[in-house]
Amino acid sequence: MRIIIGLALLTLTSFATAEALDKALQQCRTIESADQRLDCYDAIGRQQDSTSLPSSVNSTAAEPTKALATKALTAKAPAKDNSELFGFEARQITKQVPDRINVEVIKANTVHGKKIFQLSNGQVWKQIDTKRFVFSQTKGQAYIERGALGSFFFSQQNSNTRIRVKRVK
User: Fold this and answer.
1) CA–CA distance from 39 to each of 17, 25, 88, 96, 122 (Å)?
2) Which of 74, 93, 127 is the last residue of a domain?
3) How many structural domains are present in the chain?
4) What is the pLDDT at residue 141?
């Protein structure tokens, strides 16, 4: 008789936990932002890992899960300008970096037929392809944009030519 009562209580708490988990997952599914949605799912996972035994979960198990999902909804990291990391992603993968930065060229040199650009933010970019490129301060705003497979291209606004570059400093 005690075994049957124990199994019935275990089954009821399992259903309560499953219902609370289902509600929290449903709440996470409604989040528009991918980062916030992932944070919500992670919070639920951490909460589920912390409860090791189903018998330790009581009927208020829905409240911590709901609170974690609500906290994940409201928590968002402030956006930072990470243009100083542009070109060094392989070294610092965890931070968000833009796909394109507008730059001000302080000095442009040609060494062995390849351009070297020193920028106002302290970065130095070197041409790595053999394409001919004429840089002029009067052509317009210069920019560096991300290409496929970790490559970067340097160009100017009013130019249809771009060269492949690599960040040196």
Assistant:
1) 20, 12, 26, 16, 35
2) 74
3) 2
4) 86
